[in-house]
Target: methionine--tRNA ligase
Amino acid sequence: MACRVQHSIQSSFWFLSSTPLRNSLNPRRNFFKNRISFGTELFFSSSSRTALYCTCSSSSSGGDKDGFLTNEVGGDDSFVLTTPLYYVNAPPHMGSAYTTIAADAIARFQRLLEKKVIFITGTDEHGEKIATAAAANGSSPNEHCDVVSQAYKSLWKDLDISYDKFIRTTDPKHEAVVTEFYSRVLANGDIYRADYEGLYCVNCEEYKDEKDLLDDNCCPTHLKPCVKRKEDNYFFALSKYQQQLEEVLKQNPGFVQPSYRLNEVQGWIKNGLKDFSISRASVDWGIAVPNDSKQTIYVWFDALLGYVSALLEDRELASLDTAISSGWPASLHLIGKDILRFHAVYWPAMLMSAGIGLPKMVFGHGFLTKDGMKMGKSLGNTLEPTDLVQRFGSDAVRYFFLREVEFGNDGDYSEERFIRMINANLANTIGNLLNRTLGLLKKNCQSTLAVDSDVAAEGNEFKAAVEKLVEKACVHYQKLELSAACETVLEIGNAGNLYIDGQAPWTLFKQGGTAFETAAKDLVIVLEAMRIISIALSPITPRLSLKIYSQLGYTEEQFNAVSWSDTKWGGLKAGQVMAQATPIFARIEDGTEAETKSATTKKVKKEKPPKSKSPVEA
Model:
């Protein structure tokens, strides 16, 4: 639900009366109440976990408290991560694409670690705003949801998003899970009926405190007047779980990341939690409240359970217990910072009430701006992800946003900076290094490796430097430092360029004898570094990495079978034949470059350049 900007719901209600539901005679109440265990028992204890390091040892004492993604010892080595379920009131935008690109990179890295990854994404399709958007388009809510949900799937395909589960909250299996979950919380005595009155923002789908509004009671986010509403609804007893939530965060500081997001969450809880409404009497487009068909379940109470219902197989019996046993708890919820309160406060309390374990980590990343300004249709500066992919390709889009933005912080898009970075990093540092090395190999060695890469690098400091960088990149990936991971892998490319320039194999080949043998070894060393780059960068740029791997003589099937352990030096073997050198990433020309190139071409046509021979080199 990354498209909805949310603020303090818990402080927005005016209670006029309170009538607790009578459920003390329900035999399930005591059953589920006895199942609940608060505090650290809801997590795997820190002593039962170990950090997932790659080829490096687990000598670091980082652990999950320092932001490492961890796995339960003795478990099934599964890794479940989720994006928000995106709200379908409008087509996908760059904000939702950014979250999903990051999640995909994390999923791909975990697969390289040979984890059983379940990558969940999907769409949130209930609520007043959806019904309004559908009516404005002259369609039914179902038709509207089908169109927008498909738009998300199409964009994810264009961006090479490798999700495993796509859940829609209109899916019958999801509705069944929500209904059962609601009944559990009700049986535990945590739902009651009450009246409330307040100023309601339809776009935020929440009640606002008057002190937080602008003039004329306008929402500070959407700049539209809030409307006064009074309803008889059902409430969730969030305040009951204040102490337990405080204890969870104290015992498990890694639950909310980055650490400054944890400070925000602790501040919200410290200020006191208030119960919040989990139903709407005025909204028809939603899941009906069990035993009260006049009300529908609040979209957040509904959509958060998509992380659980998504675990069900298509033809599997839709039950809460079956879903929980299919992969819960989630290893990582990846969200925008605007919906942190729902994931780090409301959601854990809801799970506690139902006697279900908590996710292991909630990571709230920052916002994107364009040229230093907030994006918006009224400003005419929106950034359409589909347009970016069509113009520059999926790898360029993925690389720029994951390399440019320090994950967790806000980030800015500038087309000038985008083009400069992609040309420098992907076209020049990586693409040109591979192209010129393969060119030299074809010219002097018939595209065939002379020796094993292990033999070629014996006693060579370059090999040791690459191995250190691979280990460093692994740790960055583990800590969700995606920008630093990109930078570290790029350092291998920079080192490769410095190495080949320093060795000047084009000169050694001309000398013949032992110098020729040294030059042949140098090419093997650089190409082995390129092989390692292709694997280490594959979570970020999967298509580019496949192109590199293919030019090194491997098949697509071999590329799809690699793991992080294959970043160990020594993969290339003597006699291996490389493919024909073709550019793997073309430079992007901006308007200025294109004009300059055109003018230069016209000028060259008027002058006959002198004939000269030059070696194949940088």
